[in-house]
């Protein structure tokens, strides 16, 4: 067998294969014998056709079957010899074969491109957000905790600011007609909160069960407004518990008093913001490599990624892309392609760095992490054990641990440009669509 592999671009290859007849003859005769055993012609017993009659009547079929088997066989042999793992199904062209002659064909396929890593061990600059909380974050946390334990009391006298309205929300056209499919039922909104305040506060005040009201909110597009008709089903007042020693103990047994409780809350908020900062830093590292490396992603990998995303969308929403749905498969594919390319670029870069650095995660490390998760769990340990008995879940955990090693390593080469971000500034920037409370 002779073969040549030609590089068409960084990921596409064309394989030309030629196999002489003396290397094919024995396999061809075996294929012909197998074919003959299944053939029946009038005047002959099944499988007992003379050779000349077999080839006279079925020669082309025998050759066609043999070509299919032989092409697959020699294609796979070349891949194995050259240690190539295609990421696409091969396209077979220019197939030539007749009994007594050599077999030749071309196979075009895609493979993962070689990734030429930059010298990232020279310091590279990355922006890092450092979040700075304040006492108002603690107040908000405590207020949300109190509301979680709040009791709801029905209000008969009419709604006021801070009351909760149980409503059906129907989006309306400009003409006032309802938009089909844009209705949300049995949702709580809070009078005065976000878009339910401001110019809508008066409209939402004084309402009782059975009332209807139309409100307007700023639309997603600039200088547009959306209308909603709210049908009031109930009006509730939240009765929140007092922040006394008994309630504090319910939330935090380690706190001896309110001062300690507030400090513990601040510590939790700080830890969460540090995790957010670390997560953003990891994303910035990924973006740095993807943005600064010239790397072509195989088209077949992008297509598979987009198709898998489309399948997931269908599974998560049974009516997605169905007849009459407003979702468009063509538009979805187009929208998904850029993130598919970015994510696949990082997949290839990550794989190259892991291989270059020799990072691995063995079974002992996985088991140690599972034990750590169990030790930190207050309840549900049996469920956690069952979860990690599933091989796929253990592999996800292994990949998480591998990511931890990778980013710890890469972070050591970063020259971080730290930017302080105050949570008070983030609170000022909040806004958006109507807040609907479950």
Produce the secondary structure layout.
Blueprint: E1 2-7, E2 12-19, H1 25-37, H2 51-82, E3 91-96, E4 103-110, E5 124-132, H3 135-148, E6 151-154, E7 164-172, E8 178-190, E9 212-218, E10 225-239, H4 245-251, H5 258-292, H6 299-316, H7 329-357, H8 363-376, H9 381-389, H10 391-411, E11 414-422, H11 423-429
Parallel strand pairs: 5-11
Antiparallel strand pairs: 1-2, 2-4, 3-4, 6-10, 7-8, 7-10, 9-10
Could you describe the 3D structure shown?
There is one protein chain. With 438 residues, the protein is of the alpha+beta class. It contains 11 helices and 11 strands. Strands 6, 7, 8, 9 and 10 form a 5-stranded antiparallel sheet that branches. Strands 1-2-4-3 form a 4-stranded antiparallel sheet, covered by helices on one side. It has a two-stranded parallel sheet with strand order 5-11. Strand 1 and strand 2 form a beta hairpin. Helix 6 packs across helix 7 and helix 8 packs across helix 10. The radius of gyration is 33 Å and the shape is elongated. The chain starts with a strand and ends in a 9-residue tail after the last helix. The C terminus is likely disordered.
**Strand coverage percent:** 15-25%
Structural class: alpha+beta
Give the low-confidence spans. Answer: 431-438
Strand element count:
11
Shape field: elongated
* Sheet with most strands: 5 strands, antiparallel
The helix content, as a percent range, equals 40-55%
What is the overall pLDDT average? 90
Tally of contiguous helical segments: 11
Secondary-structure element sequence? EEHHEEEHEEEEEHHHHHHHEH
Task: State the end-to-end CA separation.
Answer: 68 Å
Radius of gyration: 33 Å
């Amino acid at each position: 067998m002779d073969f040549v592999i030609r590089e068409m671009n960084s990921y596409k290859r064309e394989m030309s294969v030629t196999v002489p007849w003396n290397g094919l003859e024995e396999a061809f005769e075996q294929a012909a014998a197998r074919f003959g055993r299944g053939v029946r012609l009038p005047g002959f017993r099944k499988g007992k056709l003379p050779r000349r009659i077999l080839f006279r009547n079925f020669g082309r079929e025998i050759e066609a079957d043999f070509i299919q088997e032989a092409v697959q066989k020699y294609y796979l042999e070349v891949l194995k010899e050259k240690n190539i793992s295609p990421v696409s199904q091969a396209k077979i062209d220019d197939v030539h074969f007749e009994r007594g002659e050599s077999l030749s064909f071309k196979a075009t396929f895609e493979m993962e491109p070689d990734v030429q890593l930059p010298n990232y061990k020279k310091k590279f600059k990355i922006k890092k957000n450092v979040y700075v909380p304040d006492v108002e974050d603690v107040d908000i946390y405590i207020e949300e905790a109190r509301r979680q334990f709040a009791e709801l009391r029905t209000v008969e006298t009419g709604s006021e600011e801070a009351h909760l309205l149980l409503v059906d929300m129907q989006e309306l056209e400009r003409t006032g007609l309802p938009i089909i499919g844009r209705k949300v039922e049995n949702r709580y909104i809070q009078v005065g909160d976000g878009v339910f305040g401001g110019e809508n506060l008066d409209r939402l005040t004084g309402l009782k069960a059975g009332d209807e009201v139309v409100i307007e909110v700023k639309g997603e597009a600039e200088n547009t407004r959306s209308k909603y008709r709210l049908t009031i089903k109930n009006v509730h007042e939240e009765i929140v518990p007092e922040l006394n020693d008994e309630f504090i103990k319910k939330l935090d047994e380690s706190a001896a008093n309110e001062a300690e409780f507030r400090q513990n809350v601040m510590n939790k908020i700080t830890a969460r913001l540090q995790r957010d900062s670390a997560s953003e830093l990891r994303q910035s590292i990924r973006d740095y490599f993807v943005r600064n490396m010239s790397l072509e992603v195989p088209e077949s990998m992008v297509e598979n990624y987009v198709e898998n995303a489309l399948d997931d969308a269908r599974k998560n929403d049974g009516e997605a892309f169905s007849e009459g749905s407003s979702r468009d498969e063509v538009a979805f594919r187009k929208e998904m392609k850029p993130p598919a390319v970015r994510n696949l670029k990082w997949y290839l870069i990550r794989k190259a760095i892991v291989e270059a650095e020799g990072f691995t995660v063995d079974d002992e490390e996985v088991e140690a992490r599972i034990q750590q998760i169990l030790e930190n769990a207050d309840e549900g340990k049996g469920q956690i054990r069952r979860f990690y008995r599933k091989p796929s879940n253990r592999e996800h955990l292994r990949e998480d641990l591998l990511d931890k090693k990778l980013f710890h390593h890469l972070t050591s080469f970063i020259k971080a440009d730290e930017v302080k971000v105050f949570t008070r500034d983030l609170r000022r920037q909040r806004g958006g669509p109507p807040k609907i409370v479950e």
